Amino acid sequence: MIFKAVGDDRPYPEHGLTQRDWANIPPRQILLSQLVTTKRELDLHSLLAKDSTFYGDLFPHVVHWQNTYYLEDGLHRALRAALHQRTVLHARILEMF
Predict the structure, then answer these.
(1) Tell me, what CATH number does 31's domain have?
(2) What InterPro entries does this protein's entry cite (predicted)?
(3) Residue 7 covered by a domain
């Protein structure tokens, strides 16, 4: 299994962060096997696009809430890492308490 679990919602409270706010969080490593997705489906076009990071953040966004890491944005990047046999991902991780 690539991820800890596959979810289809965001069980944590709304954080209100903008793209600029996320950019202020330094990326750090996290194991793919620690992540719970917040999307059940992925647009295959996004996964296979050569310029998939052109319009967005280079690093996935993860929310750490109640001892669980939720992959909020960047599912295509996480899957691409898994397809390349990587077990670790660099992501911006928001700590929510």
Answers:
(1) 3.90.1530.10
(2) VapB-like_prob
(3) no
- Report the candidate in 85, 7, 73 with the shortest Cα–Cα distance to residue 46: 73
Joined together, the tokens standing for residue 32 give 């793919």
Query: Residue 3 domain-assigned?
Result: no
What is the reported pLDDT for 27? Answer: 98
Query: Considering only CA atoms, which of 96, 93, 97, 89 is closest in space to residue 3?
Result: 89
Global pTM reads 0.89
Q: Which domain holds residue 82?
A: 19-50+61-95
DSSP three-state, residue 79: helix
Pairing mode, strands 68-73 and 35-37: parallel
- 4 to 18, 20, 26, 47, 51: CA distances (angstroms): 26, 28, 23, 20, 28
Cross-strand pairs, 95: 64
